[in-house]
Amino acid sequence: MPAPAHDHSHAHVHAPRNFNRAFAIGIGLNLGYVAIEAWYGWRVDSLALLADAGHNFSDVIGLVLAWAGAAAARLRPDERHTYGWKRASILAAFINALLLLMAMGALTWEALQRLSVPAPVPGMTLIWVAGVGIVINTATALLFRRGREHDLNIRGAFLHMAADALVSLGVVIAGVLVLAFGWQWLDPLLSLAIAVVIVVSTWGLFRQSLHLLFDGVPEQVDLAEVRSALEALPGVERVHDLHVWAMGSTEIALTAHLIRPEGPPEDDFYQQASALLKARFGIDHVTLQLNRAPFEPGCGA
Description:
single chain, mainly alpha, Alpha-lytic protease prodomain-like, Alpha-Beta Plaits, 2 domains, 3 strands, 8% strand, elongated, disordered N terminus
């Protein structure tokens, strides 16, 4: 007969850092800049400025989505949602990336059409409007710098703002070249470059968020190493039904059946296993079942 099942859960006691102030400041700064950039882009008929204004507005939407996702992730679990709403932060990151990719597709199409008939663009307007963008986007990126390593949502916000600062720098350079050499074709060409930069910076976020939405193993976790670490625990012969997935953008969960013929299911063993998984792999929520012998076929994982 198999040993009785024993579950051990390690509570996640340290809540993610609150970025409410950073989101509020970032959204306010970028909304103001979008209004300025769109106005001057319309006045001088600059596709580069209008494109960057549209992109910055999509970033505002992205910041709002990320803020909403972070707020939903902090909602307490209940009887209908026993994990709470932690996955909302992953969904927000996915929608944010999808919107950006769609916007860049539209921008690329318009820029290709304008390359054949470039419109005259005042270089000085490009320079000072984009210069303001460098300051605002850099300041906003710095608001999220400390949280980018551990939170997919915050990483998305940081990458977008940092990319925007680089794009604005490119617009300044283009403005200087338009003034110096009169290269009007540089405006739509710059729009294409903006699209490439944004697609490259967004693709990783899109791929990773989609992967996590379908319960993929987080990229920072090596499943083979996790299995080896569990098999190395005292008395464990085999590991069955091992699953690792992201509960949200900052928390990782694990479940597994451990075949352990000798010894009772002691609390010390569960504490040792949970501490090991937390320290080596950043896995917060651990559920282990000890069996003296396999008694079910498992899921094939």
